[in-house]
């Protein structure tokens, strides 16, 4: 589905992404791991159009999408979430979801004058869709709560819900588990698995929690210093000497200690 070929992103003399190449298969839940500063989030930002690449190419289903704007990628079904959730804090959770689909009838002055029935019909449909999404995520009790007043983990669920309001093909999740308690993290994991199996979503997940990665992801890709270091199953990645070196800068003599670090 997604092919990244020799992608790079430089900030002055710093090479945040340095010739990274990888492929994301349709229907997969792919994990992206690596030590802090490995270039994972920058890679996401370049693929998702938040940053322009310094070099290289990104294709989606064979189409060159290199350098497209986020809104253009959104309409192609490529979405991303962020480490810190971005919600409309003064609006309810239901309203946050209803805001997602583009080209709504109420956005044009003409329809506000002459298309009120169309606007009302569309709002009823969006409300029903939003309630369906909230129920799917098991947070229907939060429908009327202000989004700014719910917990960090619930905000992550709400971000996941936004991807369900449109026809998402591939979703990039950036540290979905950051600051989330274990119960909510399990709920998020359940939702990701269901979206993958029941609705055919493809996911790419940046996460430091290896238990979460191990439960959801196959394959797992490890980055270090802006490059793709290794790819395989999580056990293969955890046993890879280059990966161990990247995390702790040690060799085989400290392999047990390093493997314990990669596992956490």
What keywords describe this structure?
single chain, 264 residues, alpha/beta, Rossmann fold, 6-stranded mixed sheet, 4-stranded antiparallel sheet, 10 strands, 41% helix, globular, ATP-binding, AAA+_ATPase, ABC_transporter-like_CS, Lipopolysaccharide export system ATP-binding protein LptB, transport
Structure commentary:
The protein has 264 residues and is α/β, with parallel strands linked by helices. The chain has two domains: 2-87 and 166-262, Rossmann fold, CATH 3.40.50; 88-147, no CATH class. It has helices at 40-47, 70-75, 93-98, 109-114, 116-136, 152-164, 182-199, 210-216, 234-238, 241-248, 255-263, and strands at 2-11, 14-24, 29-33, 55-60, 63-64, 78-80, 170-174, 202-206, 220-224, 227-232. It has a six-stranded mixed beta sheet with strand order 6-7-8-3-9-10, sandwiched between helices. The protein has a four-stranded antiparallel beta sheet with strand order 2-1-4-5, with helices on one face. Helix 6 runs parallel beside helix 7 (182-199) and helix 10 packs across helix 11 (255-263). The model has no long low-confidence stretch (mean pLDDT 88). Its EC number is 3.6.3.-. One of its GO terms (cellular component) is plasma membrane. Residues 2-250 form the ABC transporter domain. Keywords: ATP-binding, Hydrolase, Nucleotide-binding, Transport.
């Amino acid at each position: 589905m997604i092919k990244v070929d020799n992608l790079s992103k430089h900030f002055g003399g710093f090479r945040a992404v340095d010739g990274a190449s990888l492929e994301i298969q349709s229907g997969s839940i792919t994990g992206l791991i690596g030590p802090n500063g490995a270039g994972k989030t920058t890679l996401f930002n370049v693929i998702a159009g938040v940053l322009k690449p310094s070099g290289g190419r990104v294709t989606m289903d064979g189409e060159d999408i290199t350098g497209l704007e986020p809104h253009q990628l959104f309409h192609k079904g490529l979405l991303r979430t962020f480490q810190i959730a971005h919600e409309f804090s003064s609006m309810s959770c239901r309203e946050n979801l209803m805001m997602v689909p583009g080209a709504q009838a109420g956005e044009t002055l003409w329809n506000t004058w002459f298309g009120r029935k169309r606007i009302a019909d569309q709002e009823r449909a969006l409300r029903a869709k939003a309630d369906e999404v909230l129920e799917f995520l098991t947070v229907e009790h939060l429908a009327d709560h202000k989004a700014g007043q719910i917990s960090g983990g619930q905000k992550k669920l709400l971000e996941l819900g936004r991807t369900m309001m449109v026809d998402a093909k591939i979703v990039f999740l950036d540290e979905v588990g950051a600051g989330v308690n274990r119960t909510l993290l399990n709920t998020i994991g359940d939702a990701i698995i269901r979206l993958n199996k029941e609705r055919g979503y493809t996911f790419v997940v940046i996460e430091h929690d290896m238990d979460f990665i191990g439960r959801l992801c196959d394959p797992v890709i490890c980055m270090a210093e802006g490059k793709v270091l290794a790819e395989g199953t999580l056990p293969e990645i955890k046993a890879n000497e280059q990966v161990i070196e990247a995390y702790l800068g040690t060799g085989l003599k400290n392999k047990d200690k390093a493997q314990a670090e990669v596992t956490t």
